[in-house]
Amino acid sequence: MPSGVEFARPHTHFKCNHLTKEISVSTYPSLHLLIGGEQLSGGERKTEDVIDPATGETLGSVVHATSDDLDLALSNAAEGFAIWRATPPEQRSAVLTKAAALMRERIGVIAETLTREQGKTLAEAKGETMYGAMLFEFYAGECKRIYGRTMVRPAGKRAEVRYEPVGPVAAFAPWNFPVINIVRKVGGPVAAGCSVIVKPSEETPASALATVQCLLDAGLPANVAQVVFGVPDDVSRHLLGSPVIRKLSFTGSTSVGKHLAKLAAEDLKRTTMELGGHGPVLVFEDADIDKALDVMAPNAFRNAGQVCVSPTRFIIEEPVFEKFRDGFIERIKDLKVGNGLEDGVDMGPMANSRGPDQIERMVKDAVTQGATLHTGGERIGNQGYFYAPTVLSEIPEDAEIMNEEPFGPVALLNRYAGETEMIAEANRLPYGLAAYAWSNDPVRQERIASQIEAGMVAVNSGGVSAVDMPFGGVKWSGHGHEDGHEGVMACLVAKSVHVG
C-alpha cells in the first residue's frame, strides 16, 4: 500500500443470521424446457446445477436444450407468430390480464422460489412479482392502443401508416431480476402480436418458468412463448443465426450486448439492448440531506447492489460531504444480512460465487490506490455468497471500481467543488442508464435533468422505473426501451400504405 495513506477503522458488526436459524421451505420446482407447450427434460441432454446462494446447496438441475430442441422451438415460434399476429387485440389483452391475475394468486410460491435461487429478500421478491403482474396489466391495455394514422390526400386517394408485429423475438434475460426481466422480454412481444423464445439465466430458471407458465395457463397458445436453457453463446448463435428470428431483446452486460448485437447485425435483426450502468448520484448543498440519505442509502444495497440502475457513484458537493458521508455510514451499519427467507433481513447474499470475488478484488484495488474504507470490505460467514455492505470514500478516479460497474453491495462517496465538476463526473463514463440528483432549486433540477447523459433521471427520488414509463439507457448502456408504450412499439414495425 502507498505510504501516508490513512484508513478509517471499518465497522465489522453487520448482523448475519443465515447460519443460526433453520428455515422451513417448500420443495424446489422441477425444471425443464418449455417448447410448444411440452415440458422437455431427460434423455441425453446436459444439465447444470442450480445453487442456493444463501447456503451453497444444490436446489436442482436445469436441462440444456440440444440443437434439435432449438430447431423445434424455432419451428414453433414461426407457427405461433402466424397464429398470434392474427389474434384480435381484445383476445391478446384478455390473456395478459389473466396472466397478471395468476401471478398475483401465485405470488407466495413465485417469490419464495425467486429468493431461493437468486438470494434477494422475500419482501423484494414479492415486490418484483407484483411489479411483473402490474406490467402484464399495463401491456394488456396497450394491446388496444396500437394506433396508426391516416394522412390527408386528394379525393380518391388514401395514405395510411400501420403498425404490425415485427415477428418472432429471441430474448435473453439475466439472473438479477428473474421475474421482471421475463415479463419485460415476453410481455411486450405478446402485446404486439409477436411470438417469443426466451432464454432465462440458468442460475434462476424456476421463477422464469413460473412466470411464462402464468401466460400459458391464461390461454396463450403454447407456441407463442417458449423457454429454453443452455450454454449462452451456443443458444444465442443458434437462434440468431435463424431467419425465423426477426428481433433480439437482451438485458445484461455491455460486453455481451456488443457480442449479440454483432450476431444480430448479420441478418439485420432489430435489437433492444438494456446493458450495464454505473449510476451517479449528485447531492447538492441545497438538498434535503436527511431525505436523500433515507432514500439513497438503503437503495444502494437493494438486491445486494445487483441492480442495473443501482446508485453507485455518489457525487457530493464539498460543503455537505462530511455530513452526507457520516449519515450514510450510520444508516447502513446495522443492516441485517442473511438468508432472504428470514424475517427482518435487509440484504441477502450475492447471487453467485462470481459476485464476492469481483467486489473483493475491486475494493482491494481501490484501497491500495488510496481510498478510505469506512465499513464492510469483507465476506460474511463460511457458507453462501455473503458480502458485507461496503462504503468507500476519497476513491481515485482511475481506480477500477470508479470506471467499471461493481454490481454489488458497495457505495462510492467522493467530494466535488460544484455543479460543473459534478455534472462532468456524472457524464465521464461511457455508461448512461440511470442517474439521480438531489437539489431543492427548481432551476437546477431542470438544468440537471437536461444535462445528465442517461436514459432515466430521478430528481429527489430513488425510483426510475414505472410500468407506464420507458425503461432503457444511452451510450454503452444500450438502446431501445422496455415498459411503457415504448415497450410495445419496440416490437412493431411501421408500414406505409398508399392507395391511388
Can you walk through the features of this model?
Helix 8 links the parallel strand 11 and strand 12. The protein is built from 14 helices and 24 strands. It has 2 domains: about 200 residues, Aldehyde Dehydrogenase, Chain A, domain 2 (3-Layer(aba) Sandwich), CATH 3.40.309.10; about 270 residues, Aldehyde Dehydrogenase, Chain A, domain 1 (3-Layer(aba) Sandwich), CATH 3.40.605. The N and C termini lie far apart (about 80 Å). It is about 35% helix and about 20% strand. It has about 500 residues and is of the alpha/beta class. The longest helix has 21 residues. Helix 4 runs parallel beside helix 5. A 7-stranded mixed beta sheet has the order 16-17-18-14-13-20-21, with helices on both faces. The protein has a 6-stranded mixed beta sheet with strand order 10-9-8-11-12-23, sandwiched between helices.
